[in-house]
């Protein structure tokens, strides 16, 4: 997998993850082109499209598009399920996840992704394992009170 | 503001984010962000040391701002500080910032690497994972240098936690992908393979990606993974869905692991061990069987996961391409999917079938789905599915269904989406050419193509139709008639005008008998399009007009009038004006004989070898001969076998007037009919380009009479009209061997070596040159045990070369005993600069049979170089003096050999020039200087060679006081590196 993008129906980017080194200019171009290509698709169209040398696999969840750029040897259907598994994990963590959760807790969305995809390859497909490591991480955090007493700016 | 759901709330961050969301305009957002940036900057610069929490919060805000698309130029140091915090969330935010905003500031990288090193050795699995994720996310070379040695140790250490192993495996994969040279294979590699046996499914899932990548590069070292993968796969496939608990996804056991295992197996040929192979075949059959079972769930997740495995299994079956039974089953399964209500499955089935179509076992089975695929092309609502359907039709096309498929594609083109038209046009053109049994069909198809999608017809396509018409005289009359009719349409595409202009200019006479297409009607038809066309087309039409004057003298006055009109003869475009002037002059002063010679019908284009084979030859290099034989064999086989082309080759053979020895310029016969009928679409498209690219050059050049001045044009027309290629100078000697140019090129940079060798004879060369004189020793060795009799050699200088080189030979003994060698001395004097090489013809009888072969003697202009040493200043001054465009020749070309500096130097020295050190400001570049000594004059030459190691390309520039010398040297040298 080369990259994962999350964007809204309005084309606002919510998350970008790149698994190969690219310049900022190239990234911006890919984001623009791929977003446009996917948003222009009619409903019920096939979830796969060819874009340059990449296979783009995408699926829409409510107002958010989850979109991957795949290499030739990657499996399209399984990537769709990878996206689904990611949504399940987000859902499990946030409890009925919505776009706002990903805006306000964008860092968490990145952390959860890191727990099950590294360098564009799936490292852990078990929901239990990923959830467990997220929980462990949270338990390492300081107590809430500690924060609430701090000034906001 | 929504409540922060979990964990560490950073209220300040949430407030900021919601402020941004409330901004009504872009300006307001920028204002708010600038305010925040100023605030953060002052906090970071302030005297008061920030606590970890504040630092984390501000870094997180910066990250948010960056992800909104704004530039961030500070905060890196604070993020690096967070890395060494012992609070998890602070460390985590620090790593996230580094991963997203990595900066190649070396000072910072050192600090980051230090922090990572500490975390890797912390033995705290959570910290270790964070550090590994960061390395994998950044994946830079600096990180590879720092950690490529450490990570394999972590991966195979006995006491490493499973979760860390998983991260380490994929982290190493990322580093291997970016810097394979830094990840050294070692004793850890064998232990990595055995991770396939690991108890923990997550570890296997992660490790297998690494193993797959390593196997692709080092298949032998990882061979043992095949049997391990098969047994792992077999355990999963045969397990009940509940066995694997967590790793079961919607009732499908371990889909990710299964797919990765099947993918790994695709790196290898089928297992040799019968038991392993049996087990694997059993797995594949089980997967195919499961596809027929009723689904265990109605959810799309279930069917997707299940079908993902199925498609991967089919890929493996296609990769093996050795089990006819499985291939046909796969094809049937995909056939079911073609009509499935899920669009994704239809799309993927079409895609997968494309590869199946190229297997000889399943090609026929794929063809049975033709109606479904045509239907998909017509009715699918999604353009990407239609595109796949078109690809599949292309892949399944062969002689039996070509007419149907081409017709369907043509009709689809009328409504096709703009995005795919160009590709469709190419495909139609390729298919029409490849499977043309009768060429009138081919001509019809291409003209239709231009009519329907003229804008998308590239030059290559219409060049090609003209070449074919020129070379096949059985289709010329038909082509003239058809193109004449097509031009009747009130609006026809410019490409049609081009084809029309060319074909009527050549063959308009074939339809001139009909009063409806009399010469004047033809001319008026063409000329009615003239004013709507672009300059290149107009230029082509002008050439067609002058050809008309030759074909039909009765049109002369009309055409001369057109040429004489101000809009032609005073045209602001230089090319058009020049043509008008020259053609007008030519038509008025040249006698009919001269005119007929100059404007003679185009000679047939030389037969071209199949570009696929040409590619193969290039790859094989020294083994070229064997490929040649292969090609020869194929041709014979096809001719003898009769095959599908039987009828047609009969026609062309009996057609004595076909001037080319084989009019088969498509290379049809070298393409085996079915098995290789559908190589991947990509490679074929490239082929058409490369082939046509070579052709078009010659095509236009041939078509246009020289345009330098009308004088030279006439001179050439009358004087040299019968100048024949060098091989035909004398009737007796054989034409030069096809490889003689290649042999010549071998000796550009060296003077000694073996020039030629076959089963009978070996010819060695030793030569030396001084000033404008050279002496060459040829050694003829008889490799057989039988004597050669009437051994004679002749050296000739064809054409102009006679006046440029003076070559004297001593006669050799007419008899060479078996195993013996004779020597011949050749003296050479260079009178003036020259292009061609002298020809060496050798004749002798071996066991009664006459042997006759002709080679090019490796005498090239550079042999007469005198090296000239000069300082940097002088070199550049001289370089500038030679700045007229024609004095320079330049070529940019791909490296044919390894770009080794020492080898390059040796070659340049062998060239005969002085290799100048410390002259070019770029130390990678080479510059040379030398003077070519001829009897008539001295020609100073400078050379500059610029290697680009990254692109594996060279740029070669030559400047000489004489333009032909620059050109020739450039040509010769471009073959050397």
From TrEMBL, chain A:
Domain of life the protein comes from: Eukaryota
InterPro entries hit by this protein: AP1_sigma, AP_complex_ssu, AP_mu_sigma_su, Clathrin_sm-chain_CS, Longin-like_dom_sf
Localisation: Cytoplasmic vesicle membrane; Golgi apparatus; Membrane, Clathrin-coated pit
Keyword Transport: yes
Alphabetical UniProt keywords: Coated pit, Cytoplasmic vesicle, Golgi apparatus, Membrane, Protein transport, Transport
A GO molecular function held by the record: clathrin adaptor activity
Membrane topology designation: Peripheral membrane protein
Gene Ontology cellular-component terms listed: AP-1 adaptor complex; clathrin-coated pit
GO biological process: intracellular protein transport
Record-annotated AP complex mu/sigma subunit domain positions: 1-140
Annotated family: Belongs to the adaptor complexes small subunit family.
Quaternary structure (record): Adaptor protein complex 1 (AP-1) is a heterotetramer composed of two large adaptins (gamma-type subunit AP1G1 and beta-type subunit AP1B1), a medium adaptin (mu-type subunit AP1M1 or AP1M2) and a small adaptin (sigma-type subunit AP1S1 or AP1S2 or AP1S3).
PANTHER family, sorted: ADAPTOR COMPLEXES SMALL SUBUNIT FAMILY
Stated name of the protein: AP complex subunit sigma
Native source species: Phoxinus phoxinus (Eurasian minnow)
């Amino acid at each position: 997998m080369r990259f994962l993008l999350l964007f809204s129906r309005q084309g606002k980017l919510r998350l970008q993850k790149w698994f190969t080194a690219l310049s900022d200019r190239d990234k911006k171009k890919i984001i623009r082109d791929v977003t446009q290509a996917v948003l222009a698709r009619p409903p019920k169209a096939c979830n796969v499209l060819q874009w340059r040398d990449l296979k783009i696999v995408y699926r829409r969840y409510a107002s958010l598009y989850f979109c991957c750029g795949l290499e030739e040897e990657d499996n399209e259907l399984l990537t769709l399920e990878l996206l689904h598994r990611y949504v399940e994990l987000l859902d499990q963590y946030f409890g009925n996840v919505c776009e706002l959760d990903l805006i306000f807790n964008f860092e968490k969305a990145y952390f959860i992704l890191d727990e099950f995809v590294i360098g564009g390859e799936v490292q852990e497909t078990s929901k239990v394992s990923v959830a467990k490591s997220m929980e462990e991480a949270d338990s390492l955090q300081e107590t809430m009170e500690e924060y609430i007493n701090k000034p906001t700016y | 503001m929504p409540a922060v759901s979990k964990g560490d709330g950073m209220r300040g961050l949430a407030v900021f984010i919601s402020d941004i969301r409330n901004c009504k305009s872009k300006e307001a957002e920028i204002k708010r962000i600038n305010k925040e940036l100023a605030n953060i900057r002052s906090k970071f610069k302030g005297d008061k040391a920030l606590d970890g929490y504040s630092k984390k919060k501000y870094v997180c805000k910066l990250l948010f701002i960056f992800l909104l698309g704004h530039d961030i130029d500070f905060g890196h140091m604070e993020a690096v500080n967070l890395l060494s915090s012992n609070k998890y969330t602070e460390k985590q935010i620090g790593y996230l910032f580094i991963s997203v905003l990595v900066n190649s500031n070396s000072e910072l990288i050192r600090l980051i690497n230090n922090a990572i090193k500490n975390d890797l050795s912390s033995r705290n699995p959570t910290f270790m994972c964070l550090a590994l994720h960061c390395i994998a996310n950044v994946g830079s070379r600096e990180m590879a240098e720092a950690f490529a040695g450490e990570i394999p140790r972590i991966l195979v250490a006995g006491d490493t936690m499973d979760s860390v192993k998983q991260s380490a495996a994929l982290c190493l994969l990322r580093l291997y992908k970016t810097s394979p040279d830094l990840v050294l294979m070692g004793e850890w590699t064998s232990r990595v393979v055995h991770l396939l046996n690991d108890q923990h499914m997550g570890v296997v899932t992660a490790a297998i990606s690494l193993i797959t990548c390593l196997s692709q590069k080092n298949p032998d070292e990882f061979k043992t993974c095949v049997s391990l993968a098969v047994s792992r796969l077999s355990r999963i496939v045969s397990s009940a869905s509940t066995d694997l608990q967590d790793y079961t996804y919607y009732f499908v056991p371990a889909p990710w692991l299964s797919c990765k295992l099947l993918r790994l197996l695709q790196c290898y040929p089928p297992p040799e061990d019968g038991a392993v192979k049996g087990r694997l075949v059993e797995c594949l059959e089980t997967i195919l069987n499961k596809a027929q079972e009723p689904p265990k769930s109605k959810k799309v997740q279930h069917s997707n996961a299940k079908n993902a495995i199925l498609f991967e299994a089919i890929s493996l079956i296609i990769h093996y391409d050795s089990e006819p039974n499985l291939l046909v089953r796969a094809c049937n399964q995909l056939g079911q999917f073609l009509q499935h209500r899920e669009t994704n499955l239809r799309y993927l089935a079409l895609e997968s079938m494309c590869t199946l179509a190229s297997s000889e076992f399943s090609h026929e089975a794929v063809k049975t789905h033709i109606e479904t695929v045509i239907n998909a092309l017509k009715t699918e609502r999604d353009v990407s599915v239609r595109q796949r359907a078109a690809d599949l039709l292309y892949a399944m096309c062969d002689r039996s269904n070509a007419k149907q498929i081409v017709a369907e594609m043509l009709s689809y083109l009328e409504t096709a989406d703009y995005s795919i038209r160009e590709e469709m046009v190419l495909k139609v053109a390729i298919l029409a050419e490849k499977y043309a049994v009768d060429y009138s069909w081919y001509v019809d198809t291409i003209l239709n193509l231009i009519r329907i999608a003229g804008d998308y017809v590239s030059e290559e396509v219409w060049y090609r139709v003209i070449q074919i018409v020129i070379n096949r005289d059985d289709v010329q009359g038909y082509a003239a008639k058809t193109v004449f009719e097509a031009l009747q349409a009130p609006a026809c595409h410019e490409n049609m005008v081009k084809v029309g202009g060319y074909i009527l200019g050549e063959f308009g006479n074939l339809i001139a008998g009909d009063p409806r297409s009399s010469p004047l009607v033809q001319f008026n038809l063409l000329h009615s399009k003239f004013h709507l066309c672009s300059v290149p087309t107009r230029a082509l039409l002008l050439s067609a007009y002058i050809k008309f004057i030759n074909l039909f003298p009765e049109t002369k006055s009309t055409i001369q009038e057109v040429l004489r009109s101000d809009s032609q003869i005073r045209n602001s475009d230089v090319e058009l004006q020049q043509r008008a002037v020259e053609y007008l002059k030519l038509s008025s002063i040249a006698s009919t004989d001269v005119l007929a010679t100059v404007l003679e019908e185009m000679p047939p284009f030389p037969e071209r070898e199949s570009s696929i084979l040409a590619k193969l030859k290039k790859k094989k290099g020294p083994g070229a001969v064997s490929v040649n034989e292969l090609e020869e064999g194929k041709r014979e086989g096809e001719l003898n076998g009769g095959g599908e082309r039987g009828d047609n080759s009969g026609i062309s053979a009996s057609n004595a007037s076909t001037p080319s020895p084989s009019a088969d310029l498509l290379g049809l016969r070298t393409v085996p009919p079915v098995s290789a009928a559908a190589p991947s679409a990509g490679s074929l498209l490239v082929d058409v380009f490369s082939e046509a690219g070579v052709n078009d050059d010659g095509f236009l050049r041939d078509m246009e009479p020289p345009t330098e001045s009308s004088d030279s044009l006439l001179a050439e027309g009358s004087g040299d009209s019968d100048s024949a290629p060098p091989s035909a100078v004398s009737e007796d000697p054989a034409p030069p061997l096809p490889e003689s140019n290649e042999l010549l090129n071998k000796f550009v940079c060296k003077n000694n070596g073996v020039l030629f060798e076959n089963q009978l004879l070996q010819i060695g060369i030793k030569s030396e040159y001084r000033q404008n004189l050279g002496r060459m020793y040829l050694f003829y060795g008889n490799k057989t045990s039988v004597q050669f009799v009437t051994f004679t050699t002749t050296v000739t200088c064809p054409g102009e070369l006679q006046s440029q080189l003076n070559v004297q030979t001593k006669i050799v003994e007419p008899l060479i005993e078996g195993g013996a060698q004779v020597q011949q001395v050749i003296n050479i004097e260079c009178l003036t600069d020259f292009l061609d090489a002298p020809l060496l013809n050798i004749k002798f009888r071996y066991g009664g049979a006459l042997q006759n072969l002709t080679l090019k003697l490796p005498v090239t202009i550079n042999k007469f170089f005198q090296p000239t040493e000069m300082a940097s200043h002088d070199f550049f001054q001289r370089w500038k003096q030679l700045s007229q465009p024609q004095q320079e020749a330049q070529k940019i070309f791909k490296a044919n050999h390894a770009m080794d500096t020492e080898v390059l130097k040796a070659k340049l020295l062998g060239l005969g020039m002085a290799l100048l050190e410390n002259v070019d400001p770029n130390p990678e570049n080479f510059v040379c200087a030398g003077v070519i000594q001829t009897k008539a004059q001295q020609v100073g030459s400078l050379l500059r060679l610029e290697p680009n190691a990254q692109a594996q390309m060279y740029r070669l520039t030559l400047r000489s006081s004489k333009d032909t010398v620059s050109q020739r040297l450039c040509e010769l040298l471009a073959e050397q590196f």
